[in-house]
Design goal:
The complex is a heterodimer of chains A (268) and B (110).
Chain A lengths: L8 E12 L2 E12 L3 E6 L5 H8 L7 E6 L2 E2 L5 H8 L2 E4 L11 H12 L4 H14 L15 H12 L6 E5 L7 H18 L2 E5 L3 H7 L2 E6 L2 E6 L1 H5 L4 H6 L11 H9 L3
Parallel strand pairs in A: 3-8, 3-9, 6-7, 7-8
Antiparallel strand pairs in A: 1-2, 1-4, 4-5, 9-10
Chain B lengths: L1 E7 L2 E10 L4 H13 L4 E11 L1 H16 L4 E4 L3 H9 L7 E3 L2 H8 L1
Parallel strand pairs in B: 2-3, 3-4, 4-5
Antiparallel strand pairs in B: 1-2
The structure holds adenosine-5'-triphosphate and magnesium ion.
Chain lengths: 268, 110
């Protein structure tokens, strides 16, 4: 293995180690993220998924290892190089992070105002094209506080793709959405891949969503990637850890119902 | 990106080639709006466009709106599969007048 970026690989991660103080959070991660496909990263809460995304985005400097993306090693790049790479990256994070003092339209136009010298009219049409893609054209003038959870997620997605990024990162896109809104969002993610050829990395716990959108799945546990493969391969895995994540067995069987009831009611 | 406007008999032909992205779409916009100011119908040939981003599409949309206001014919010629997918995704395929030959556009002018 040389660590060179292959043409069909959008992101190559080698021997990535991250510590927070004395705690090792990521432990020798190796991962190839293929171009133009959807990679889902799954794993228990605390496994290190968000930390991995933060490293790829250059928001967290790893302790050691390399992350090759868009011709740059993000792990060792300068702030200026990271900034340049980030213009080609769209991010929609846990929590959305839209500015509540602005309208939806203003939020979506913001990256264009910050990074380009495009004409006002061009900016407005671009913003409306993206709002139309996420089915939110009517919400352009609403304040962020007036949006439902699903609308806020879609608005965040519209903003993430406003610059036509080559790479799109999503942390928990469908968490907290009702099934039909979540399914809509899944369909949108697939459409972005097919129509715009984007490479998309999604962190999610939602099993329905994973098996609908993923071309590849990486399963994380305690700072390691324990398995990678297609949805079929992951689904067929005999690793008990993965079977557990796939809800194939109950987390804990209640043996002593009286004890459990006491635990819930706290000694009445 | 290359972008040349030719005066044909009764209309302008804008030949576009290469990558139309954030860097070049302002130039495309200027050429389109400049051509429409002359009062001629405009046909934009996209056959040699290898990539067009949404800023390029936005310039095409603004041009279309401007042409409509001035009651000028405005057509897109030889749109590539990839560009077509972007148009379809944003339902613009239903809005633009799309042509596969110059003759088709000329007939529309009569
Ligand atoms: N800024 C930080 N400082 C110290 N420890 C951190 C920091 N951020 C994350 N951690 C720790 O790193 C570990 C991995 O966290 P991370 O947020 O990457 O998990 P995750 O897989 O995204 O979990 P979830 O599914 O709950 O979002 C956790 O144990 C967390 O406590
Ligand atoms: Mg997380």
């Amino acid at each position: 293995m040389t660590g060179n970026t292959q043409t069909d690989t959008a992101i190559t991660i080698r021997n990535l180690v991250v510590d927070y103080g004395p705690r090792r959070i990521l432990n020798d991660i190796n991962l190839d993220i293929p171009s133009g496909q959807i990679m889902v990263i799954m794993g228990q809460s605390g496994a290190g998924k968000s930390t991995l995304l933060r490293c790829i985005l250059g928001l967290k400097k790893p302790t050691s290892g390399s992350i090759h993306m868009l011709g740059t090693d993000i792990a060792t790049a300068s702030q200026k190089e990271i900034y340049k790479a980030r213009k080609q990256i769209g991010v929609a994070f846990q929590g959305g992070a839209l500015f509540s003092s602005m309208t939806v339209g203003e939020n979506i136009e913001l990256p264009l105002r910050e990074h380009t010298n495009l004409d006002e009219k061009t900016i407005q049409i671009m913003s409306r094209i993206k709002l139309d893609m996420v089915n939110m054209l009517d919400a352009e003038h609403l304040m962020v506080a007036e949006l439902s959870g699903g609308m806020a997620k879609r608005a965040a997605l519209a903003r993430a793709i406003i610059m036509d990024p080559k790479l799109l990162f999503f942390d928990e896109p469908s968490a907290g959405l009702d099934p039909s809104t979540a399914a809509e969002l899944d369909q949108l993610i697939i459409t972005l891949k097919i129509s715009l050829g984007m490479t998309i990395v999604v962190v999610t716990h939602e099993l329905d969503s994973i098996f609908k959108i993923a071309d590849h799945i990486a399963v994380m546990k305690d700072g390691n990637i324990v398995e990678t493969g297609t949805p079929q391969q992951i689904s067929a895995s005999t690793n008990p850890e993965i079977q557990g994540l796939l809800n194939r067995k109950p987390r804990e069987t209640i043996v002593d119902t009286d004890a459990h009831l006491r635990r819930l009611t706290g000694g009445f | 990106m290359e972008c040349n406007v030719k005066s044909e008999f009764g209309y302008d032909l804008l030949e576009l080639s290469g990558e139309v992205d954030l860097q070049f779409s302002p130039q495309l916009r200027e050429k389109i709006l400049g051509s429409l100011k002359t009062g001629n119908p405009l046909l934009i040939d996209l056959a040699k466009v290898s990539y067009i981003d949404s800023s390029g599409i936005a310039s095409l949309v603004e041009g279309f709106q401007t042409a409509k206001t001035s009651k000028l014919q405005y057509g897109l010629l030889n749109i590539s599969n990839t560009a077509m997918q972007v148009l379809t995704l944003t339902r613009l395929d239903k809005i633009f007048d799309l042509y596969s030959s110059i003759d088709q556009f000329k007939q529309k002018l009569q």
